[in-house]
Each structure stands twice: as structure tokens, then as C-alpha cells.
């Protein structure tokens, strides 16, 4: 339960209290110097005491959220400073008061998490900051961020997509709001043409980490976005101590972090970060807002896949801040020669069983070319589920796509490949990584044999698992509609 302390019951403070009472807030304590106001609050069953808002002896022992709401700027300035000293881990939201000076605003900004100017104040937003599970979540996140000594590494999954990139940028911005510097970090490459366009057009400052014994030696804290476990789809050691996890994917194993936020009812991790920005009153800059909106659009497939009301609300919040010209240019990048070559191989090497297709393209230089080849393979007539896989260094990477199918492709790939590698994703878009193992040191002259063996193994596992996920026919003599008319093309 969140404990709230209101210091000063001026016009704004009273409006905040009314909203909180209407919403059924409990553990609400008010300190105000005017006895008449205090008496009125007590008549409404609000715990209120007559004392100066700057008198710490009138405060409760523990507080999660402090709302400073007097009409006098000097009182608010002093009360906010005292509250910060008394409750260093609490979230402090301070109203400037009427006709504040620049010095008042600067002083409040130095101690409060959020400063509310008289001209911009919205009572609904203030009450939202202090009400329900969302308020508790915001408070706990800020508490963990404040406790980080040194720079924060916000780590995406390997070869990050727009949702992961944008989420990392947003969390860095939130950390900055409490005085913690941070970097958006990733392992691998950003090679998908649209992802590269996003980074280049927005001139994003991302840190590429190198795999090794201690890739985070320069950092004092670690956060994971758009994935939830170190060492699973990132280059971190599995024993890495994680401070923050924010992800919208259901975890496949236990998640160990000081602050985990795992909400799979939304379509994108970017949506969760927008929620934090909104509740903290942080207006995103053009770069972050544009990346967040693009991240939401990509992960929800332009609001047609696994989309929730919160995704639409997040997009509406971001629209005034985005650069529409950059979005247009990101969505129409040129296609590289690597993507064209990989797509051609995927079409030529495809094996089709009913409406399911799988294709091995052999050695590749750009793993994101697999995703683009899968998109184009799915566009072929008669295919509803496809998997394209290729070999990069000592790993087989696979990218799957599905449409209008009764199966969950993410679950299919997990069942097919989790025992020999790692896999996951959405119902209609998923991926997998499988180590080559003893095949990794094969002589280059035997590449063709290796590629044939890998394709047979990956395709076989995929087709077998899809078959087990497909709906059981009503008549035992009927043929599985997904895998009928087996053929190799």
C-alpha cells in the first residue's frame, strides 16, 4: 500500500486531496497550518494535523509519495527540501505555488522528482501519480534508480529492433530525471535496413558492447529492456546482477531483478516506457518520441497484432512530439544487396508442406536479412507460416513469420529449438538461435554438406513441431490442413 503525505492544503493541495479521496486512496496524511482546513478534512475522515508543512515532527515515520501543495512558493520550496532529506527514497511531487520566481523553480527542481507549474497544473495527472498500483510501480522504479552509484547501462536484446532501441532511450531519459546518467547499450549489430535507417536518421547515440569477461566494467548499474534475463539473447554473463527489467514478453524462466516490470498485456515495451514518462510528467524529446512511436507501430504491426488500449493511448501521447518526416523515411529505406541475395536463396531453397514453408540460405553476413526474407517468403501465394534460417559464425539464426494461422509461432519455435538453443517471439513473428556445436569447426570445403545437414535438421524440427501444434482433425482420415500435400521445391 502506498503511503502519501500532502504538505500544504492550498487551492491545488485541496484539489489533489479531493481527487485522492474520490479514488479511494488510503494511508493519506495531510499537514497544514490552517486549523479550519484541517478540521474540514477531518470531517471527511482524512488524517490531517495542524502544523507548518515545514515541521518534520508532524510527518509520519514512513512515506512513499510526498505531494507539496501550498499556495506559497517559499513554503513549498522549504517543505520539499525537508521532505527530501527526511524521506530520501520517496517520490516528491512539488507544486511551485502562485507567482513563483525562477529561484523557486530551480530550488524545487533540485530536490523534487516532478515540479508542477501553476500555469500547467492538471489535478488529474497529479492524482494519477499518487494512486493505485501504477503509483507504487513508479515509486519503486525511481527508488531503485536513485540507489545506483555510477553510470547505468540500459541493455537491449541482441541486434535490437526499434521497440528495444526506443525503450532503452526512454529509460535513460527517466534515469536522468533523478540524476543518474546512462547509456542505451546493445550486443551484436543493427543491420536490418529499417533499424539502421532509424538509428541514422535520428542520429542515435548507442553504445555497442563487446562480449567478454566483464562487458559492463564501466557501469554501476544494469537495466534490461524488451527482454528479461541476462545471458538469454544478449551478451551478458548469466550471473549479471540486474537492477531493472522492463519487458512486455512473457518470461520463459525466473526473472531476478531489484525492480521487474513484466506486463504482457500490452503490445510493445515502448508502451510501458511511455506510461512512465507520462506519469512522471516528462515530455519526450523529438528523437525519443519518434523512436517510441515507431517501436510501438512495429511491434503491434501498425496496431493490428496483440494491440491493447494502452498502445493507442501511448501513441496519442507521443504524436505531438514526433517527427513525421523521419517516420516516413524510416519506413521506406532502400534494400541492400545482401537482403536481395538472401531473399532469392530463401525462395529457391524453400521446402513446402501444405501452407508451411521452411528455407535454409546457408552462410550469411547479415542476420537481419533473414527477417526481411521471411517477410517476402510469407507474401508468396499459398504460404501462411514460414521459417528462414542461415549460418553466421558459429550460430544458426532463424526468423519466422505467420498470418491467419491457428498456431502461436513463438510457442512453436520455443518447443522446436529451446532444447538445443533459444527461441521466442510473438504469435506471428518469432526467431531462434541455435549453436552449431561440433559443426562449428567444419572445413570450408565441406560447407555445402554442412548447410544441407543444418537445413535438414532445422526444417525437420520445424515441420514436426508445427504439425503437433496444428488443430487435430475431426476425422482421423482427414489430412492436417497446414501440412497437407507434402512437397519439396
TrEMBL record:
This is DHH family phosphoesterase. Residues 5-94 form the RCK N-terminal domain. PANTHER family: BIFUNCTIONAL OLIGORIBONUCLEASE AND PAP PHOSPHATASE NRNA. It comes from the Archaea. Residues 362-446 form the DHHA1 domain. InterPro entries: DDH_dom, DHH_sf, DHHA1_dom, NAD(P)-bd_dom_sf, Oligoribo/pAp-PDE_c-di-AMP_PDE, RCK_N. It comes from Salinirubrum litoreum. Residues 153-296 form the DDH domain. Signal peptide: none annotated. Transmembrane segments: none annotated.
Amino acid at each position: 500500500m502506498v503511503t502519501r503525505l500532502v504538505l500544504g492544503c492550498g487551492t491545488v493541495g485541496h484539489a489533489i486531496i479531493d481527487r485522492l479521496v474520490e479514488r479511494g486512496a488510503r494511508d493519506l496524511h495531510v499537514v497544514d497550518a490552517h486549523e479550519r482546513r484541517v478540521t474540514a478534512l477531518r470531517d471527511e475522515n482524512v488524517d490531517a494535523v495542524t502544523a507548518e508543512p515545514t515541521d518534520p515532527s508532524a510527518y509520519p515515520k514512513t512515506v512513499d509519495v510526498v505531494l507539496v501543495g501550498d499556495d506559497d512558493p517559499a513554503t513549498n520550496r522549504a517543505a520539499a527540501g525537508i521532505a527530501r532529506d527526511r524521506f530520501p527514497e520517496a517520490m516528491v511531487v512539488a507544486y511551485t505555488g502562485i507567482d513563483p520566481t525562477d529561484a523557486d523553480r530551480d530550488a524545487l527542481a533540485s530536490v523534487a522528482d516532478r515540479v508542477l507549474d501553476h500555469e500547467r497544473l492538471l489535478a488529474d495527472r497529479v492524482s494519477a501519480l499518487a494512486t493505485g498500483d501504477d503509483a507504487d510501480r513508479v515509486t519503486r522504479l525511481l527508488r531503485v534508480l536513485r540507489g545506483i552509484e555510477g553510470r547505468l547501462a540500459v541493455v537491449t536484446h541482441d541486434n535490437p529492433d526499434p521497440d528495444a532501441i526506443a525503450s532503452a532511450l526512454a529509460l535513460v531519459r527517466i534515469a536522468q530525471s533523478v540524476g543518474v546518467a546512462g547509456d542505451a547499450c546493445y550486443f551484436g549489430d543493427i543491420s536490418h535496413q529499417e533499424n539502421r535507417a532509424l538509428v541514422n536518421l535520428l542520429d542515435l547515440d548507442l553504445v555497442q558492447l563487446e562480449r567478454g569477461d566483464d562487458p559492463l566494467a564501466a557501469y554501476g548499474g544494469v537495466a534490461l529492456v524488451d527482454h528479461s534475463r541476462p545471458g538469454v539473447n544478449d551478451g551478458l554473463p548469466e550471473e549479471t546482477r540486474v537492477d531493472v527489467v522492463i519487458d512486455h514478453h512473457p518470461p520463459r524462466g525466473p526473472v531476478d531483478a531489484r525492480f521487474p516490470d513484466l506486463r504482457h498485456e500490452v503490445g510493445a515495451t515502448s508502451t510501458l516506457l511511455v506510461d512512465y514518462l507520462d506519469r512522471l510528467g516528462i515530455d519526450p524529446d523529438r528523437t525519443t518520441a519518434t523512436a517510441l512511436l515507431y517501436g510501438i507501430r512495429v511491434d503491434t504491426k501498425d496496431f493490428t497484432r496483440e494491440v491493447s488500449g494502452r498502445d493507442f493511448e501511448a501513441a496519442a501521447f507521443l504524436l505531438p512530439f514526433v517527427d513525421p518526416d523521419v517516420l516516413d523515411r524510416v519506413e521506406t529505406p532502400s534494400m541492400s544487396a545482401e537482403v536481395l541475395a538472401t531473399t532469392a536463396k530463401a525462395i529457391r531453397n524453400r521446402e513446402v508442406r501444405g501452407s508451411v514453408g521452411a528455407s535454409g540460405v546457408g552462410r550469411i553476413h547479415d542476420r537481419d536479412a533473414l527477417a526481411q526474407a521471411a517477410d517476402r517468403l510469407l507474401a508468396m501465394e499459398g504460404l501462411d507460416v514460414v521459417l528462414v534460417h542461415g549460418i553466421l559464425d558459429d550460430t544458426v539464426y532463424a526468423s519466422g513469420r505467420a498470418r491467419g494461422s491457428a498456431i502461436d509461432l513463438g510457442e512453436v519455435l520455443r518447443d522446436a529449438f529451446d532444447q538445443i538453443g533459444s527461441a521466442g517471439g510473438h504469435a506471428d513473428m518469432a526467431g531462434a538461435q541455435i549453436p552449431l556445436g561440433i559443426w562449428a569447426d567444419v572445413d570450408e570445403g565441406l560447407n555445402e554438406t554442412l548447410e544441407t545437414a543444418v537445413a535438414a535438421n532445422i526444417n525437420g524440427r520445424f515441420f514436426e513441431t508445427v504439425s503437433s501444434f496444428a488443430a487435430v482433425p475431426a476425422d482421423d482420415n482427414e489430412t492436417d490442413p497446414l501440412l497437407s500435400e507434402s512437397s519439396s521445391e
